[in-house]
Design goal:
62 residues; mainly alpha; Small EDRK-rich factor-like N-terminal domain-containing protein
Length: 62
C-alpha cells in the first residue's frame, strides 16, 4: 500500500504549495491600469458592433 501513501504525501505537498502561492494581482499600478483600459476599449468595440448589428436588423425588418 506504499503507492497510496505516496499519493497522499504528494497531495499534501501540492496543497501546501497552492496555499502558499500569492493569489492577488501580480501587475503594478500602471500595468493594471493599461490592461483595464485595453479591456474597456475591446468591450466598447464589441458593444458598438452589437449596436450596429441590432440597428441593421431593425431597418431590414421594417
Amino acid at each position: 500500500m506504499a503507492r497510496g501513501n505516496q499519493r497522499d504525501k504528494a497531495r499534501e505537498k501540492n496543497q501546501k504549495e497552492m496555499a502558499s502561492r500569492k493569489k492577488s494581482n501580480q501587475l503594478s499600478g500602471t500595468e493594471f491600469q493599461r490592461t483595464k483600459e485595453d479591456q474597456a476599449a475591446i468591450m466598447r468595440a464589441k458593444q458598438a458592433a452589437a449596436d450596429a448589428r441590432k440597428k441593421g436588423e431593425g431597418s431590414t425588418k421594417n
